[in-house]
Amino acid sequence: MDSSAQQNGIFKTLQIIYGAIIAGIVVFSVVAFILIDTPVYDIDMKNIFTIVVPIMAVGSIFFSDSVYQSMIKRISPNSTLTSKLAQYQTATIVKGAWLEAPAFIAIVATFLSNNIIFLFVSILMTVIMYLKFPKKETFKQEVKLSFEEKTEFDRL
Length: 156
Known about the structure:
InterPro entries: MFS_trans_sf. The protein has 156 residues and is mostly helical. It has helices at residues 3-35, 48-73, 81-113, 117-131, 136-142, 147-154.
C-alpha cells in the first residue's frame, strides 16, 4: 500500500470508528426510550444519578478536551504525515471515548430509574460528539504540518 493510500485509509478509518461510536449511543438511546414501560420525567434529588450523571457529563467534556489537546501537542513536527495521522486518530478516538462514557452511563441511569430526563444528557453528549467529528480541515489546523505535508494531505 503506498503512503497516500495508507494516509487516506487512516483518516477514513478514524471517521468510521468515530461515526460508529456516535451511532452506538443513538441506537442504545432509542432502545432505552422504547423499552421504558412507565417513563418518569422527574428531577429527584434523592436519586444518586441526578447528581452523578450531569457531573460526569460536564467533567468528561472538559477532561476529554484536555486529554485530546495534550495528545495533539505531543505529535512531533518531525514525524511523518502517516505517523501524525495515526497519532491524531488515537487522540480523536480517546476524546470520543471520554465523551461516550457519560452518554452510556446516562442511558443506564434511564434504564435503572425509568427517568427519561437522563436521555437528554445522552442526546447532549451525542450532539457534542457530532460537533467534534474529525474533519480534514480540523486535522490541518490542529496538527503542525509542513507546507509539503499540507499539500500531500490536500491530495488525499
